[in-house]
């Protein structure tokens, strides 16, 4: 059991050291590597976190974030990457979007709220781990998050998860709203068609009614004319001469 635990710890240590190496390498990426980082598979969700896009700590000041934004925007600018200008433009837009999010006080606060929630959830997770260790009598072993760097990484992972969850909720609400608008529009079209049919029916009925009235008037007029002709065409019989 202890050998399995030891092996697990070693595997985690290897994994974590690889992650740290990647983070360290990413901080000094070349223009081409920065473009790859921002457009890599899964970047849609990674890029939801503006702190991740600009490679800054959420607790950095706005001035520090601005400096990093400027350095990155120069690195990936399409004019500086003519051989890959289309992808450079995409990366440039991603960086600009992240900066605009953090530059705005309201949206930056929302992002910081997500970061704070990530810290709270991470602290709760750590508390649960400690309780379990105490229950199992393994308090002396400690937990990976006792290391400040690993604690920071755990917050980073939780932050990414919360940004992804928020985006999924947004997409769900957007889809639901779109379907609702579609149903509403279909109902409006159906109502408009029904009103059009009723209007057409009323118009046809009025026209046919008028035709019936005109027909009846014509019939009545014809009947009177015939009677008149009969009267006008009547010739009384000649009186017979008296016989003497």
Helix content: over 70%
- Average pLDDT value? 81
Low-confidence stretches: none
Report how far apart the termini are.
162 Å
Q: Calculate Rg over CA atoms.
A: 43 Å
The dominant shape is elongated
| Total number of strands | 0
The number of helices is 8
Given the helix and strand composition, which structural class is it? mainly alpha
Order of helices and strands: HHHHHHHH
Major beta sheet summary:
none
In terms of DSSP E residues, the strand content is under 5%
Protein name: J domain-containing protein
Pfam family, one: DnaJ
Organism: Euphydryas editha
What does this structure look like?
- The longest helix has 85 residues, at 148-232.
- This protein is an all-alpha fold.
- It has helices at 2-26, 31-39, 43-46, 50-54, 62-76, 85-103, 105-136, 148-232.
- The chain is 80% helix and 0% strand.
- It is elongated.
- Helix 2 (31-39) crosses helix 6 (85-103).
- Residues 174-188, 196-215 have a biased composition (Basic and acidic residues).
- InterPro entries: DnaJ_domain, DNAJC8, J_dom_sf.
- Residues 123-146, 174-244 are annotated as: Disordered.
- Residues 49-116 form the J domain.
């Amino acid at each position: 059991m202890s050998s399995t635990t030891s092996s697990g710890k070693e595997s985690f240590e290897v994994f974590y050291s690889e992650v740290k190496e990647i983070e360290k390498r990413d901080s000094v990426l070349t223009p081409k590597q920065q473009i790859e980082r921002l457009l890599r598979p899964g970047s849609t969700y990674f890029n939801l976190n503006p702190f991740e896009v600009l490679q800054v700590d959420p607790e950095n000041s706005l001035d520090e974030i601005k400096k990093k934004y400027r350095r990155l925007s120069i690195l990936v600018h399409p004019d500086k990457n003519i051989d890959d200008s289309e992808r450079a433009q995409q990366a440039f837009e991603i960086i600009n979007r992240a900066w605009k999010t953090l530059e705005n006080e309201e949206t930056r606060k929302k992002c910081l709220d997500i970061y704070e929630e990530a810290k709270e959830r991470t602290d709760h997770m750590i508390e649960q781990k400690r309780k379990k260790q105490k229950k199992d009598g393994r308090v002396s072993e400690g937990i990976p998050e006792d290391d400040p760097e690993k604690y920071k990484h755990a917050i980073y992972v939780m932050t990414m998860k919360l940004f992804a969850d928020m985006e999924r909720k947004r997409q769900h609400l957007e889809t639901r709203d779109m379907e609702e608008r579609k149903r509403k529009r279909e109902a409006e079209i159906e109502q408009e068609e029904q009103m059009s049919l009723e209007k057409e029916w009323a118009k046809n009925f009025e026209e046919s009614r008028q035709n019936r009235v005109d027909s009846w008037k014509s019939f009545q007029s014809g009947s009177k004319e015939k009677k008149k002709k009969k009267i006008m065409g009547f010739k009384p019989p000649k009186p017979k001469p008296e016989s003497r």
